[in-house]
Amino acid sequence: MGIWSAFLTSLGIIKRKVNILLVGLDNAGKSTIINGLKLNAAAPTEIVPTVGFSVETFSTQHRLTFTVFDMSGQGKYRDLWEYYFPDVEAIVFVIDASDKARACVARDELETMLENKVLRMRKIPILFFANKMDIDGGMTPSECSGALGLEEIKDRNWTICATNGLTGQGVSNGFDWLAEELKS
Ligand SMILES: Nc1nc2c(ncn2[C@@H]2O[C@H](COP(=O)(O)OP(=O)(O)OP(=O)(O)O)[C@@H](O)[C@H]2O)c(=O)[nH]1
Ligand SMILES: [Mg+2]
């Protein structure tokens, strides 16, 4: 960012742009959550499994413009996630709270991610969404946290919020937290 842009951003005249990486297993609800944040989301869009990745941009009331790299969670595409680690300021990791059977797979993917050389050097925050809170019998955020071993993450800031991707409930709480983290 040039000096002039930095000055205008500091005055709140232009919004600061931040890159966010959106990851999690396939079917977790990543694209659904992001679609709900887009301005034109009033028109229902059919969400299909993401192939590779897609890029979405949206603004919030936090004077930030988020560019979100919405990654596919399918096994064959998960290797793509790491290519974005050097260029993002935060990670959003979506957990399907109703999918207890695959919580261990999500934990493995999270551990692999946290062991990555670039991420070990970059202490960027991670926002976890315990999504599909509307489904009965699903895990609570604290159960998700236990299943994925989140309490073991000591080297960076993180939080977990319960969300409903279909209604957007809980999503703004998460982005409020992220905006606070990104202030500095
Ligand atoms: N009941 C319920 N269904 C949800 C919720 N969020 C997403 N879904 C559904 O979950 C399915 C998968 O959603 P996607 O947004 O495509 O999931 P994704 O994480 O982007 O999946 P990939 O692109 O394959 O990695 C869709 O049928 C959504 O309608 C939720 O909070 N509750
Ligand atoms: Mg998707």
Strand order of the largest sheet: 2-3-1-4-5-6
Global geometry: globular
Q: Helix/strand/pairing class, anyone?
A: alpha/beta
CATH superfamily: P-loop containing nucleotide triphosphate hydrolases
Question: Topology of this protein?
Answer:
Layout (H helix, E strand, L loop, with lengths): L2 H8 L5 E8 L6 H8 L15 E7 L4 E8 L18 E7 L6 H13 L1 H5 L4 E6 L9 H8 L9 E5 L8 H13 L1
Parallel strand pairs: 1-3, 1-4, 4-5, 5-6
Antiparallel strand pairs: 2-3
Bound molecules: guanosine-5'-triphosphate (GTP) and magnesium ion.
Magnesium ion (MG) binds next to helix 2.
Explain what this protein looks like in three dimensions.
By secondary structure, the protein is α/β, with parallel strands linked by helices. The protein has one domain (16-183): Rossmann fold, CATH 3.40.50.300. It contains six helices and six strands. The protein has helices spanning 3-10, 30-37, 103-115, 117-121, 141-148, 171-183, and strands at 16-23, 53-59, 64-71, 90-96, 126-131, 158-162. The longest helix is centred in the middle third of the chain and has 13 residues, at 103-115. Magnesium ion is lined by residues 30-31, 49-50, 70. The site of guanosine-5'-triphosphate has 22 residues, from helix 2.
